[in-house]
């Protein structure tokens, strides 16, 4: 798992929301895909599509790209094109403000922060634990890499799993 690449993805998404982009792309990796799907499940972004260097076609009704295998759809991954694959993310806005406010890395490449279930309970209640400050605002989320994939902190407390703290979304 490369936290350097994840830090650049967080910075890229911050810049894309400040620039009011509707569609942006990040490098394709399993870590980035799982984090993007977790962001989509929490409602921060509207769609995640694997594609090539050019954006995939937009859905005629929804307006953002969707995964389709029809003519002109997403091409399959082959050995020749694996290096040029991208994840295309459709960003959401509400009342002319980005839904994805700010992403901050918690674990750094030089200092990885792990947390157990008891520490997570404290963080979810708003207290500090293991160099991780508590969740204070209602829409704030904390993402962890666990044995069961990338999950949000509240979901980790429900399933009683801890893990490596990746990033915080404000």
UniProtKB/TrEMBL annotation:
Any Pfam family the entry gives: Ribosomal_S8
Q: Which residues form a coiled coil?
A: none
Lineage: superkingdom: Eukaryota
Which terms in the GO cellular component ontology are assigned? mitochondrion; ribonucleoprotein complex; ribosome
Q: Does the keyword Ribosomal protein apply?
A: yes
Instruction: Tell where it localizes.
Output: Mitochondrion
Q: Which InterPro entries match?
A: Ribosomal_uS8 (IPR000630), Ribosomal_uS8_sf (IPR035987)
- Gene Ontology MF annotations: structural constituent of ribosome
Q: Which UniProt keywords apply?
A: Mitochondrion, Ribonucleoprotein, Ribosomal protein
What are the recorded Gene Ontology BP terms? translation
| Family to which the UniProt record says this protein belongs | Belongs to the universal ribosomal protein uS8 family.
Q: What does this protein do?
A: Component of the mitochondrial ribosome (mitoribosome), a dedicated translation machinery responsible for the synthesis of mitochondrial genome-encoded proteins, including at least some of the essential transmembrane subunits of the mitochondrial respiratory chain. The mitoribosomes are attached to the mitochondrial inner membrane and translation products are cotranslationally integrated into the membrane.
Its recorded name reads Small ribosomal subunit protein uS8m
What is the originating organism of this protein? Penicillium capsulatum
